[in-house]
Amino acid sequence: MTMMDLVNEFIDLYKSSPETVPKNTDGIVVLMGPARRVDISRINLGLNILRTLSNPVPIIFSGVTEEREEILSLMERLGSPKSLTHFQDCGKTGVANTKTQFETLIADPLTKDLRRLAIVTSVWHIPRVKRTAAKFLPPETRFVVAGNPDGSNDCDSFVLVMGEIRKIIEYSARGDISAKPR
Length: 182
Prior knowledge:
Elements: H1 3-15, E1 27-31, H2 40-52, E2 59-63, H3 68-77, E3 85-89, H4 98-107, E4 116-122, H5 126-136, E5 142-148, H6 154-173
Parallel strand pairs: 1-2, 1-4, 2-3, 4-5
């Protein structure tokens, strides 16, 4: 995997249509970002996916300890079914990251047996999330990763993408994520 391979992966991602979430999805996982900003567009995308599914499924908000109350309150205001809404605490800011989100996902009794997941993140985060999921989720778990546009301008997006490319190369070299998505 070269830097150019990753640049081309991001270009293809931005040019393609979003993945379709299968109707038989049995769980939605919304990967929340740092506590300094709750990303309401990720929450809305997760809720929109929930509304398209044939059956009610759990919607899991995976984030840092500090945002738990804010997320649960926001979910209630946005009309998320209380019986389906779950917050997964992945640790405090500075400790929690994408890797700990997946470690928590596979350890939590509520989510460890889910085998058809829709994972929500920001569009620029999709390639790293796919690799992290490939590393941590059991091989029989099928998943799609849906990304919302984050509202960044082109310059911000370029900086974000280059940062993600650097992280993918670094994290895959040390074995924290898979070198290839599945």
